[in-house]
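Handout, page 2. Input:
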Amino acid sequence: MFSLIQNEWMKLWHKKGTWAILGILLLVIIGVGVLDKVTMDDVNNSNWKQEQQSMINDANTQLQTPDLDEWSIQMFEDQKAMAQYRLDNNAAPQVNQSMQGNMALGASLMVLITLLTVIPGASIVSQEYTDGTIKMLLTRPVSRFKILASKLITIFLFGITLIIVTIILTTVIGFILFGTATGIDLTIVDGVVQQTNTMKDIFLTYVYSLGDFTMSILFAFFIGTVFSSPSIAIALSMLFLMMGPMIIMLLQKYIPVEYIWLTHSDLTQHLRKEFFIEETTLFMSLTVLAIYAIIFLVLSFMTFIKRDVKA
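Output:
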């Protein structure tokens, strides 16, 4: 199996498109970092106390508005509480122009990383049929199961490589451009203002983003294997990844969307506590995703193993 994966890995990096994907990711990371540095205010966060006091004053003004709804009242009260906490504890806010801010940017790029991984994931099998190399591949004294498994593992390794590159590069660029100076993020839990662990939040964002990452790759791999069309696989995968929330909103009027994988693939909703479907739990999301992952894998392997290849 190792030799098969090694062979697929070499074939993947032999393609110009793979290097183009890596180049796009590097340009985005470096470009955004440099842009933040160029546009960074010289005084940066030096006047943050004045800004926090202005936020308190604005919140007090808004709270005097007649017939203000409860949601707005709570929002302005929270704004006041966090601003006052910063002033009382000399807790400057986190800014994008910092090492941790740049690392947070990397976590937010998981959607881009997923899209860039979907492209080779959708074509790694179907391109073999398009180029006619599938006949040569299947003549090797190796089971079709191992051949397909090696391709799938290779794609996941490629995606993980992009994630690692992103983590390293955003950290290094953030340190070079902005140094280690940073600020403090706040949150309100049960009415109490608390400081958050930025590094922990960044780590959790990466971890929870693996839901969309994994399911998008499996879906693209499944479509590319079953229909032997990389264009269809890429188009559908990108559509579901980018338009998933809108699709769920349209479908929930007609079908129980809590049983659709698109409703649960964005696991970061459990971090934000903003759910497509109320009372959704992490266990429920993982269960639904596991079921669909098994379905995609079974259909992919069954199709590839049983498909006849014309000589």
